[in-house]
């Protein structure tokens, strides 16, 4: 299930995700550089900040940037207007279909928003040429557990409880072993999966609340009237800040490298 994003706020606040994308691409493409004319898809491109980093490696390539959010797609289209290498489309990744399979799929900070990882990996395998590469990073097992706990506590408060009746958590913070198995089952080879921690500090509770509203709590806030958005985010941020000063998000990233098998 996807939700709408505040693309303008995400553009301002997404420095952590952009930095991790930069590190991942640097490390992976240093080991096995691209030729520069490959075709690629950035799945879950957001406003396109990480897509832009990928494009530095593809001076003569083609990139299809896809995202389920209309606001994100609009922002990415504005960013790449006039760049003939880039096409941006609004697509739910669980329905991804391409006319021409590509050499590379990149994804950052997206897979954990999708519960059905096995289906997702099947779609991605279908969009890659045999021998094509998947390079991805998303939230992994244990990701922002401090924030999740604080959010659950605030959802249970008297003032918010009725709004969350029937709530189902649709996030998937998978572990490396399960992800490895799912990728193999989807027809990937040379699979590598591992997690690493990225504790991320904020200057104040207010700064953290602003970040949470856009980057983490979007689905929750859809359940609440506008007037409750700020109080909800403030309450979660205050609980997170009570654990550690300065307020810190306990990010755990799941890294994924894989090659689409030649036999599938
Ligand atoms: C945190 S943003 C990451 C954006 C960008 N890749 C980055 O690293 O900054 C997650 C993105 O995943 C997209 N997304 C979530 N579920 C999706 C789905 N089922 N299909 C396509 N995009 C999805 C959201 O719309 C959002 O733009």
Describe the structure.
This protein has 264 residues and is α/β, with parallel strands linked by helices. It has one domain: Rossmann fold (3-Layer(aba) Sandwich). The chain has helices at 7-13, 15-31, 49-55, 70-79, 117-127, 145-155, 176-185, 205-215, 218-221, 226-243, and strands spanning 39-43, 62-67, 86-90, 102-108, 128-139, 188-201, 248-260. It has a 7-stranded mixed sheet with strand order 3-2-1-4-5-7-6, sandwiched between helices. The protein starts with 6 loop residues before the first helix and ends with a strand. The chain binds S-adenosylmethionine. S-adenosylmethionine binds next to helix 2 and helix 3.
Please name the defining characteristics of this protein.
264 residues, 7 strands, single chain, 23% strand, Rossmann fold, alpha/beta, globular, binds S-adenosylmethionine
Output the helix-strand order.
HHEHEHEEHEHHEHHHE
Fraction of residues in H or I helices: 40-55%
Q: What is the strand content?
A: 15-25%
Largest sheet geometry: 7 strands, mixed
Number of domains: 1
Distance between the termini: 28 Å
Q: What compounds are bound to the protein?
A: S-adenosylmethionine
Specify the CATH architecture: 3-Layer(aba) Sandwich
Task: Assign the CATH topology.
Answer: Rossmann fold
Total number of helical segments?
Answer: 10
| Dominant shape | globular
CATH class: Alpha Beta
How many strand segments?
Answer: 7
Mean pLDDT: 97
- In angstroms, what is the radius of gyration? 19 Å
């Amino acid at each position: 299930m996807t939700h709408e994003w505040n693309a303008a706020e995400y553009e301002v606040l997404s420095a952590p995700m952009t930095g991790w994308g930069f590190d991942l691409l640097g490390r992976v493409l240093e080991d096995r550089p691209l030729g520069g004319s490959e075709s690629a898809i950035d799945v879950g491109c957001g406003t396109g900040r990480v897509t832009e980093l990928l494009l530095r490696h593809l001076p003569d390539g083609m990139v299809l940037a896809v995202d389920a959010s209309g606001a994100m797609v609009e922002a990415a289209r504005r960013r790449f207007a006039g760049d003939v290498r880039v096409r941006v489309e609004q697509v739910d990744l669980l329905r991804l279909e391409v006319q021409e399979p590509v050499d590379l799929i990149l994804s950052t900070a997206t897979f954990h928003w999708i519960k059905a990882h096995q289906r997702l990996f099947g779609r991605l395998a279908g969009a890659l040429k045999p021998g094509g590469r998947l390079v991805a990073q998303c939230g992994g097992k244990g990701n922002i557990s401090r924030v999740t706990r604080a959010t659950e506590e605030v959802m249970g408060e008297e003032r918010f409880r009725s709004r969350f009746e029937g709530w189902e958590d649709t996030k998937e913070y998978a572990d490396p072993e399960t992800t490895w198995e799912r990728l193999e089952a989807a027809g990937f080879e040379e699979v590598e999966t591992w997690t690493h921690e990225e504790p991320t500090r904020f200057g104040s509770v207010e700064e953290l609340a602003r970040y949470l509203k856009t980057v983490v709590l979007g689905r929750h806030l859809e359940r609440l009237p506008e007037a409750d958005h700020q109080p909800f985010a403030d309450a979660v941020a205050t609980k997170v800040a009570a654990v550690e000063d300065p307020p810190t998000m306990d990010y755990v990233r799941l890294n994924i490298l894989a090659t689409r098998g030649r036999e599938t």
